Amino acid sequence: MSEPSLPHAHLSKKTFQGNFFEDFELGDRLIHPTPRTITAGDVSLYTALTGSRFAIYCAETVAQQCGFEQAPIDNFLVFHIAFGKTVPDISLNAVANLGYAECQFLTPCFVGDTLSVESTVIGLKENSNGKTGIVYVHSVAKNQHDKVVVSWKRWVMVHKKVPSSPTGVDSLPDLARTVAITGEHIPSGLDFSHFNPQWTSSPYLLNDYQSGEWINHVDGMTINPSDHSLATRLYQNNAKVHFDAFAMQQERHKQPLVYGGHVMSICRALAHNGLANGLWLAAINGGSHTAPSFAGDTLYSVSQIIDLGNIEQRNDIGWLRVKTYGLKNVTAEQISQFIEEPKSLIDSQVLELDYTLLVPAKSDH
Amino acid sequence: MSEPSLPHAHLSKKTFQGNFFEDFELGDRLIHPTPRTITAGDVSLYTALTGSRFAIYCAETVAQQCGFEQAPIDNFLVFHIAFGKTVPDISLNAVANLGYAECQFLTPCFVGDTLSVESTVIGLKENSNGKTGIVYVHSVAKNQHDKVVVSWKRWVMVHKKVPSSPTGVDSLPDLARTVAITGEHIPSGLDFSHFNPQWTSSPYLLNDYQSGEWINHVDGMTINPSDHSLATRLYQNNAKVHFDAFAMQQERHKQPLVYGGHVMSICRALAHNGLANGLWLAAINGGSHTAPSFAGDTLYSVSQIIDLGNIEQRNDIGWLRVKTYGLKNVTAEQISQFIEEPKSLIDSQVLELDYTLLVPAKSDH
Amino acid sequence: MSEPSLPHAHLSKKTFQGNFFEDFELGDRLIHPTPRTITAGDVSLYTALTGSRFAIYCAETVAQQCGFEQAPIDNFLVFHIAFGKTVPDISLNAVANLGYAECQFLTPCFVGDTLSVESTVIGLKENSNGKTGIVYVHSVAKNQHDKVVVSWKRWVMVHKKVPSSPTGVDSLPDLARTVAITGEHIPSGLDFSHFNPQWTSSPYLLNDYQSGEWINHVDGMTINPSDHSLATRLYQNNAKVHFDAFAMQQERHKQPLVYGGHVMSICRALAHNGLANGLWLAAINGGSHTAPSFAGDTLYSVSQIIDLGNIEQRNDIGWLRVKTYGLKNVTAEQISQFIEEPKSLIDSQVLELDYTLLVPAKSDH
């Protein structure tokens, strides 16, 4: 995408235009505005916007039989709200969200919890064109009890304020390729000992999956113009590229871009068919939005099981590492072709998401 | 509609493709996945999606003066959520929803209640073309206290897995033409003794209506693309025909179909103008979606009073049996013409819904 | 807009067609139907529909540090719900909403509060064409404890039932040009003594603003078809012009009009960038929808500080009178031009809103 055209006159000094590459320094700590309380309204909207049906978030009865006092909030919703908080400071002038790593969910959220988010700059690399640079941040969302809810790293390509003066900045952080799942990733209270497959209609438990196995989630979901903008506003993510159709007519894609997190959530919701027992999102190991999505696109998803394992001292719960791909506007034949040769649909692939789910390891029903 | 084209290769065995006609046997009991807690978020979304304004659901103060401890959930919303649960097992491969009968609301729902739904196969009839068959089910939604909230029967035309092998199945259930309203249809606590017409702005009580009377509800409501897909996802109804615009381009109508229940709710909301005191949905006697609706259609509704009556030992409440017709994209002249000759607009008629409302029989204001 | 074409036959006497100019008499008191309880679902939808990020409404933690027991409801949301109640009786046959005055917020609202609304006719003026007249009403919304939440005056142009018979009615009310802010406009408990700029990321307090200062809020927001109709139905505002695309094809603009209040809320949300500490809406001094908005329009906003001041015996809070202009489908250059010469973009200007915000006067951080 070319540089956004910003108003050049009469800008009040009180208006914030977002940070540019030169505004970030290694070690900078940014406290993001607008702490946010999560409500039952957010949960219903998330269901309406994505069609998600993972049982533990949908029913108080199921949540209680899984050891929670009340239904927890879907960690994808938690992530989008937390992520949205970082946008005004980190990615308002982003050219692209390049990647995610080490996203870990450490405390479950419930209706009424309030998230406060801050980020630390952990890496900076100027691009050789002198026009842009890559900013790496480590972001942390805490709840009202100061407990870390979710911690993640991401890197974005950001415009430079003065494109013609290279600064030579080049400092890359070490990033883990996967989050090693341990007991700390099991939310307090979670217990799948009494898991009942009738909740989900899926009999498949941890050891029914195999590394390398592909799942075609079959169903498709069309993104309507309001869907993605409602979702993105709900998360209070104010990146300009999602909302201003008039200005976007002048940009490369001639229209607003769908927030990549909405694509994640749609693909996750479609993955219910085949992964219904992948109930708890423990970590996002990595992710990339390989092509943009627009209103009117229809999304499909396929997943490959990458790995799975047990957790020490727990025989009720295991983890499943999954790579889910989002494909847009493809036929059933093309989806089959993708599974045979995953690099074959590069123009239609909109998402590659590597994440780890907690799954019941046994059923007493 | 022609048969949906399903992916034919690489289908994981863990992905559920829905049941086909041969998968159902008389007496089968299906426990539907994903119990669902109803929240304040669902209620607000229902208002935003339909514009419904029936007073008893909108205000705690009104609900309390009607004998409830808190505002009850609109039974149309309850029905759609309960219905949505049955879709993955019953109608994922449905060609058409053919009809409803004996839908009775037996326990009121409140914010926080959790619905669990199951169905029994009560009838099966193979069509003479050997390609499809009709499945009759009796579905029951219970709350977390194991009380029946809503019980209904419906029949759907479902694809056969193997179109060429007729099985000769032909077993039809007995279905009542109407639900006889008794005390069990009055929700616990409901008392219209202190009904105040200022709540609804309508002075019309039970005996102000007459059998045969027609009401033109006058107003129109256009269905936008996001409206119906948001509603259908909120109900976790995952029937493919509502969501996948890309695949639907290959089907007869070239576009997604609006969930028939959304049409019901829009027509019910429009019927507020003339039936504002028809506060409580006690039963749906029958219903059919006489033509499909699409995004962009504008709906209008007219109703005819079929019958009305009192309920033993209650002088505060009576029942009104109403037939509401949904018409799309019609002029005021055409609506008037329809009332004179109801079969005259067959291409524009999208709904015929026969239902029974509880109505205040007197006012102490 | 020409007169709406109403069905002329078979109209049930139970259907309400709205009031015409001749139906109003000076001093008439109208008790509007459907009291409405505000819920957490309404709050989430308001966020999703507008992208509003004013901190005091978003987080329980912030609200509590500002002296509230829980997060209050945004007064713009309160206003739209209260306003919606008046539509069936006042403006169903309105040609145009001409203006607002003396809108004062006197009691804060919280989740669970129920609004009941009534209006008094305070002025009537027949237009010289004999076809329409202007109705002035004073509307008051009270909560379940009978406390006035919001009180406002507005005037609308309404069709006459019989266009050919002038009645000579001409009685105009006195309307104040501004609401003088006093202690009664500070909601009970509100205390900005511990205001922390980290909540909002804006360091600008009361005395950082100057009369005459212009703020270009920079960002744009496109209105999608579902956005405005969802919002308007949420507020249970049933004015025909917003919902019936089929009938509107025959009218001057060939399409539904966006509810002016949705335009207000979008402009207010955009104004967060530059006015993030204008946390509490105390009054709307006046407002006019200078041109209609339609689905697809992209809104921008600019504000001018009109005046500011302190409140007796309070050193933590002051007031800021702001005029916010909504502009549609304009370039950055045109926005700059508008600030230099505010009357230069008359066709693109959709809103002029004069309102007063409560702002922290000091920070202890």
Automatic annotation (TrEMBL), chains A, B, C:
CDD domains assigned: FkbR2 (cd03451)
Q: Which domain of life is it from?
A: Bacteria
Name the Pfam families for this protein: MC_hydratase
Q: Name one GO molecular function term.
A: lyase activity
PANTHER family, A to Z: BETA-METHYLMALYL-COA DEHYDRATASE, MONOAMINE OXIDASE-RELATED
Kindly provide the name given to this protein in its UniProt entry: MaoC family dehydratase
